[in-house]
Amino acid sequence: MFQNTWILALLILTFSACRREAEPAGRAMYYWRTALSIRPAERALLDSLGAKRLYVKYFDVDIDAGGEPLPLAQLEADTALLQDIEIIPAVFITNRTLERCSSDQLDTLAVRMYKKINELHAPLSRWPIAEIQIDCDWTEGTRESYFYLLKKLRTQIEPRNCALSATIRLHQVRYFKKTGIPPVDRGMLMFYNMGDLENWDEPNSILNIKKAAPYLEGASRYPLPLDLALPAFGWGVLFRDGRMIRLIYPIDEQVFVDADRFQRLGMRRWQVIKSTYLDGNYLYRGDRIRVETAAPGDMRQAAELLQRSLRQDPRTVALYHLDSLLIKRYTHVQLDSALQIMAPR
Amino acid sequence: MYNSIQHFKLWRLASVAGVLLLCLLPQRIDSSCVPNPNAFSGYSFIDTDVTRRYIDMAPLLPDFPKLYKLYKGQAYKQMEDNVKEWRERICRLATEADIHYLVYVATIGELEDLRTSISSSRIPLSYLGASMSENTFARYLHRNKCAEIVDYLIFAKKCEPYAVKPGGWEKPALARESMQRLIQEGKQAFMRAESHYVRLRYAYQIIRLAHYAKLYEEVIALYDYLIPKIDHDPSIVEYWILGHKAGALLALDRRVESAYLFSRVFDRCPSKRESAFLSFRIRTDEEWRECLLMCQSDRERAALYALRAHAEDSRLVEEMEKIYEYDPHSEFLEVLLVRELAQLEKDLLGLEFNDKKAGNKRYHGRPRAYAGQLVIDLQGFVRKVLKEGEITSPALWKIAEGYLELLAGNYYFAEKTFSVAREMIDNDTLERQLDAFEATLRISAMSGLNPDIEKTASDVRTSKVYTQFPDFPEFLEDKMADLYEKGGRKGLAYLSRYSLKSLRANPQLDILDDLLEVCRKKDRSRWENWLVEKTDGTTIEKELIDMKATMLIGEHQFEAALEVLKQMDRAEWDDYGVFNPYADRIRDCVRCPLPDTLALYSKGEMIENLVDTEYRAKAATDPDEAARLYHRLGVAYYNLSYYGYSWRATDNFRSGASALRYKRGSRNYVFSNPLFPLGNKENMDVTEALYYFEKARILAKDRELGARATFWGAKCEQKLHFINNAAGVKPAREYFALLRRYYNDTDYAQRVIKECKYYKAYVAQ
């Protein structure tokens, strides 16, 4: 009896010694434009950061005038410079679609979405789809429909050995008992858009660590394994007559140096002094713009905060999102340093 | 007999299985039956008939949801316009339905048969079956030997499978070779066609094919090659073609040319207006200037500004001034005027008395901070336009001027302006609109409480226009409620806005007394009658008496409640429910039926019985008799509470969810409820019941009675623990301790162990 116990203990020791250390998280990026066309500089950035995955938005789902859900802004892809990059299809669905769809329509929608994803994926990659991500800022009113749709999608993709993930907003982590847990394999915590966007005095609605910290209090209890998306983007928040009316995206702050059209009001705050077009947006005299970006220092702080707060290490850490302005806005070192905390190389 | 029993059993089994199956079937997810509590709540009196003429712009006018409901979509409009144009071209010699059949429904085979019949005298039209031989369009084409048109229709049918705009669920049949073959075939047919109208239609098919095949350069080349070969004869098809050319230019990043063409389509082609608006792209001031330079007339320049004005959150007055500067007759001016009026109406109409204004501000940012300034700006523009007198519909602008004055609170000027507008009106639609605005003015201008006000309110309520606009009842009722509130008439204020039924869950004494006063008034006004009279001519007085008495019983003011009930005939007491609150049960059951043996009392009789019981308890010299009577009182108080089956005698509405929603320790028993504006009050406090059980327990010499009173005390203790203490505080269970220590050997305690799991668990500890 005594001998057997020793053998058992030895076996346990042997196997525990053989256990591999947890793999570090992989690096990824989001690509959220309709025309997928990677430029050499962007590919170089992906390579230099070691980002092997690209979450690409394939289409949006919105409802038309007749109450039928439709795929909008379908991806138009140029496959050049995409070799050796794993493409993860992402689909954004609007709440109003979920509000207005009956369960029959959701059944059909799940089938159509999966078919459309495959159709758009075929020219992009010779590899089968390993994961599909659904993006939706669901509310209490749309939760039931959204989760129903996810379940239906899951039945579509499960036999094909494909995982289903969903984006998760911060408030959905904090109030998960109220907002519910989506029936998916993994969640992608979108660690941004945490400030009061509509308040002119908001310092930075994209990344505001002070405001984010309380939201992460419940993160260690969140039942779903979470991956992580950090912000690497900027935008202009347009205010007209005291009210936030639109986001201007992308935005290059250099345009505001034109003193004939813009007047500086303060730190990253501008006023339009002559009605003008700004990158397709018509601005009226008196409009005000707050320019926001995720500062590299804040990105690092965010990663450190998340490292302390999450229940388990993420499998993927992604940056949102890849475009030409990203390269202008951040250096390779800044991005690498933010990723290094949770996805070391 | 056996068969019938078997049959019954089978039927019952089938019923149960059916219900189960229904439960298992997937349920439709539909939230439409649940009203959105945060939806904007305001009033609108802009007539849908006034806006109906802008129906093609419905997707661009989010403030007119009714208009959008009437809108059938761009594709429908295109189809409708197409059929109409065909009909005009053949001098209306065929019906629209028949043209629609041939153009959109008939198969290529049917059209080929028609073609053969036209060219062969041996195949009369009657050989082709009713769908062709009785079709007026087919007969026209046959009679006039219009082989060219039929050939074109056949060609159009061949193009149809490829004319699927990319973007749907189905993969577009982008068979570029087939499409190019069709383009070539179309070009040849185009050259052969003698009719320039048929040529135009071939050009449309060919250019559309090239566009959908993403052959953008070819679209431009085809346009430049084909269009000069067609004699100009105005047709909507020209704008469809222009739309495809604009789309191709946009794809080639020639934004300025594209924007210019889209603005022309937007201006001239209602069926393509929405897509032209969505495709219009100008990125810089330079591009805008270039685009303006491309315009060949002031109308085109005005259309360009109109396109920009339709963007969400545009500054409409600024854009309208530009449009007016270029083209005072532009139809877009009227659309934008009505759109801005609707916005300002949303901001300002009834703001002082809208009881949902807090939600409107919080969830919808209404009124906008600058709404007042916008009214002033728009007033300035409207007055300028009216003074210069160049616009097409001055009556509409005059009515708008009056409505702006109304929204600004200048009722005197609004009245004057409306009377001038009345003289200018030349059609029924505007007359109805003016009627509605004048009624709105009459309601808005009411101030103070006097008989004239109630007369005005009654007059408006019985006017024709009141029934034509669904928002009038709420607008008038909210206004009257506000006036009554300011005049201290709480009952009338409440009933102006809400129903009597909605007061039942939490009646308020001041509201009830005010309404009782109105019911008993001899010279009630028409408005007061409308509020308190029932359809049979009687008033709501008795319902109010019952409600007041019920409320007082709930507050345990029995004598006061009895006095109130005496204000109605004793014989009528039974009409308001009969009860017996004395059933002594171990387990609570609010919905269990009472035993037949128990006598039932009306509320008044019940009170008399309770008062008498208390008197007898106090007067009793035998301690056990006193204990029995006190226990009986305790049981009654408990059963009349939220937890007892006689709750209806003290409360008109009980929600099982209230116990779950109760914030422990708060002692706030009023629960918000969408059905009841004052919430739903529950009688959860059982302190007085406990008082009587404690008296009974102390007095009782009979140990069975003592056990009984102690257990009921434990029930009250448990409920009071729940309402008095925050979650997590351990219950004291003092009465359970007493029951176990002093009465455990009684029959009653043994029964309690069997029936009450709490006590069973307590004893087992």
Give an overview of the whole structure.
- The complex is a heterodimer of chains A (345) and B (765).
- Chain A is of the alpha/beta class.
- Chain A folds into 2 domains: 280 residues, Glycosidases (TIM Barrel); 60 residues, no CATH class.
- Helices cover 33% and strands 28% of the residues of chain A.
- Chain A is built from 11 helices and 18 strands.
- In chain A, the strands form 4 sheets. In chain A, strands 1-3-6-7-8-9-10-18 form an 8-stranded parallel barrel, surrounded by 4 helices. In chain A, strands 12-11-17-14-13 form a 5-stranded antiparallel sheet, with no helix packed on it. A two-stranded parallel sheet of chain A has the order 2-5.
- In chain A, a hairpin with a 2-residue loop joins strand 15 and strand 16.
- About 3% of the residues of chain A have low confidence.
- Chain B is mainly alpha-helical.
- In chain B, the strands form 2 sheets. Chain B has a two-stranded antiparallel sheet with strand order 1-2. Chain B has a two-stranded antiparallel ribbon with strand order 3-4.
- In chain B, a hairpin with a 2-residue loop joins strand 3 and strand 4.
- In chain B, helix 11 runs parallel beside helix 13 and helix 33 runs antiparallel to helix 34.
- The two termini of chain B are 55 Å apart.
Q: Tell me the span between the first and last alpha carbons of chain B.
A: 55 Å
Task: Give me the CATH superfamily of the largest domain in chain A.
Answer: Glycosidases
Find the structural class of chain B using helix and strand composition: mainly alpha
Specify which chain pair forms the largest interface: A-B, 33 and 34 residues
Helix content of chain A: 25-40%
- Tell me, what is the CATH class of the largest domain in chain A? Alpha Beta
Rg estimate of chain B, integer Å: 39 Å
Total of helices of chain B: 40
Residues in helices of chain B, as a percent range: 55-70%
Biggest sheet statistics of chain A: 8 strands, parallel, barrel
Beta-strand percent range of chain A: 25-35%
Q: What is the total tally of β strands of chain B?
A: 4
Radius of gyration of chain A: 22 Å
Largest sheet of chain B: 2 strands, antiparallel
Q: Please state the overall shape of chain B, judged from the principal axes of the Cα atoms.
A: elongated
| Tally of DSSP β-strands of chain A | 18
| Helix-strand pattern of chain A | HEEHEEEEHHEHEHHEHEEEEEEEEHEHH
The oligomeric status of these chains comes to heterodimer
Strand order of the largest sheet of chain A: 1-3-6-7-8-9-10-18
The strand line-up of the biggest sheet of chain B is 1-2
